[in-house]
Here is the input.
Amino acid sequence: MRTALGLCLVIAARAELARAGACGMLVQVSPAASPMPRDGLVLVEVVGQHADVLAHAHFVTPNGDVPARVVRQVENGRLQALLAPARALSPGQIHVALGLADIDRVLATEPIDVGDATAPTLEWKGKPSVVRAVDIASNKGDGTHAMLVKTPVTAPGWVVATITADEHSTDVIYPIANGTVTIGTAGCFSAYFVDHAGAKRVELTAIGAAGRSVAAPGPITLHFR
Here is the structure.
């Protein structure tokens, strides 16, 4: 499930960046849950020119800036990166900044709520399994065939899905929402489409606080039409 935060940022960013003449980049920021744990991870997705875009990433808090570190990064037609705070954040409202004035003005308008708790240890409680096929409307008016997959983990977080077909693999970061992930599409300003119909081998790795990564107990096979 994509948060409303991410959608608002993208809509605002399009107008703001067009006015700023920086139309070569779109940025989306999403927490895994709201309120976010004090040591939680934030997903930053960047479409367009993104060389060194995370070099100065940090969290802006009422108590001063907190450096951000990249705990997982993939490129799959865009940049996806999970950012962790260098130290636990104080409860309240924060936002991510990249050190890019035009982008940061937009990011500052959509604060992220941070709660009192820290994230529980992320572990798998069982094997992932297919729930059902789903059809998702895209922002272009057409649809995407995707698969809803049960992800029995101990806490909200993120998974890296390694999708393999015909010896070609692609990594995509997905949010865990209500114990499931939707594989085949992600993001609200453009979709990740599975390239071809047929069987895909999918390996899931859960990513928790401080970048702790835990591989799921075994791959699954998804059949896309």
Summary: Helices lie at 4-20, 101-107. The chain is about 10% helix and 45% strand. Confidence is low (pLDDT under 50) at residues 1-23, 186-191.
